[in-house]
Specification:
Length: about 50
C-alpha cells in the first residue's frame, strides 16, 4: 500500500466517525493499515493468523 492510499483511508475513516467522539487511529504493526482502538483489537489476531 502506498502513502496516498493510506491517507485516503484515514480521511474516510475520520469522516465516518466524525459525528461521535474523536477517534485515534493507530497503524497495525503487522500490515500498517490504520485502525481505531476497537478495530485494531479485533483486527490484530486475524492479521496475525491470516496467512
Ligand atoms: Zn494488520
Amino acid at each position: 500500500m502506498n502513502a496516498s492510499k493510506a491517507a485516503r483511508m484515514l480521511q474516510s475513516l475520520r469522516k465516518t466517525c466524525a459525528g461521535g467522539r474523536p477517534v485515534v487511529l493507530r497503524p497495525c504493526p503487522k500490515c500498517g493499515k490504520p485502525f481505531g482502538a476497537r478495530a485494531l483489537r479485533k483486527h490484530l489476531p486475524k492479521c496475525g493468523k491470516g496467512k
